[in-house]
# Entry
Amino acid sequence: MNYDTWGKVRQELKRSVGHNNYVTWIEPLRFEELSDGVLTFAVQSNFMGNWVDRYFGDAILSGVSAQGEPVRRLAFVVRQPPAQGAAPATPGPASGNGPIPDHGPAPAAAAPQPAPRSASAAFADGLPLDPNNTFDTFVVGKPNELAHAAARRVGEGGQVTFNPLFLYGGVGLGKTHLMHAIAWELQSRDPGARVLYLSAERFMYRFVQALREKDMLGFKSMFRSVDVLMIDDVKFIAGKDSTQEEFFHTFNALIEQKKQIVLSADTAPGDIDGLERRIVSRLNSGLVVDIHPTSYELRLGILQRKMDLFAQQFPGAEIGEGVVEFLAHRITSNVRELEGALTRLYAHSSFLGREVDLDMAQEYLRDMLKSADRKASIDDIQRKVADHYHIRLSDLVGPRRNRVFARPRQVAMYLAKELTERSLPEIARKFGGRDHTTIMHGIRKIEELSGSDNSIAEDLQLLRKLLTAQ
# Structure
């Protein structure tokens, strides 16, 4: 295989993986050789090679095979990019110097190539963005309109009046969609913008890796040279002292440089157990937005938007009258399950060649509807109970035993057993890792009080309505 062949493969990958993924992962690859079925590339780090192999390896192998080249697997060697101002070596099978052109090898007399931008290392650690998660595909309703508006403002680029933007809410309510949409919007408006999106787990992994390899200078340079830093599921770093320390300093450095930060979690900053108070204070200094559970109207709008997409993916499939409204009414837990139900119905209709009516929908989705009948998750219950009793979520699940916290905690335990299918040990883990016998005691206590204490009985009735509202 020669550089001309690799150039053709890269052009096809550019179309198939999307602009952002191509620039982040494919463009930095430097073709070295194809020998005995092993295709070797030079990369800037082991992490980058592992990531490309995991997420884009099959696409690369398929593209090379389509060019008639006998290839079995990929291999990666770590080489540093050429120094700034240095002329690249003439391309050859063993040379990893210089960027690879899209169409054939560079001429021997090519002008010196500039070094990659300092953000290239940061991009190499980012997570791939879903091309379907854009602002155009995000359905806006009352529960998420503030989060959408704030995300839109950040996506426009430039200075905003709030920094950081902190999005929180339950699973499947659109936090990740909005973060991806921000990144796509920023890249479309300014392709040169250095936007880094990753999970808090990946941030910790890179920090630990830098400590192990004694490369803290490289770590600091990578994370503090971006224009926009986006970290998903911040609660992952809670309780991890060293990681929180570095996160705190990275946060401050970016704020001082007036760089935008966008973060997300399942709960508000102050309710993340184990998160340092100084970090909570910094997070609360920006805009904290709660993405509320979806309403019937919003769920219906999401389904109608998905129907337009599925009509192309499942040609000939037909969904009968009233089915979509039925789904929006019955499946209220989160958007992912809602979309999964619709996907299943379109697949049944397409594969079986007949319209899915309401009776068939109920039959095909029997398992999902049974689960949806127990609508609330333990997280939902904990949030509702904490709000009802005007206490912090961290106190509800924490160790404090005075009655102002203990009674609401027992109410939440009781509702978790009644409204979910979770086992006692699973419930215990959600309540700060308590023993399941503690959960049993709390449940029995509320059972007793509900028959003798009108206040507890009324609280349970109200909370059930809130948690099972359609």
Observations:
- Residues 83-124 have pLDDT under 50 and may be disordered.
- The longest helix spans residues 46-66.
- The first strand starts at residue 30 and ends at 35.
- Strands lie at 30-35, 38-43, 73-78, 165-168, 195-199, 228-232, 260-265, 287-290.
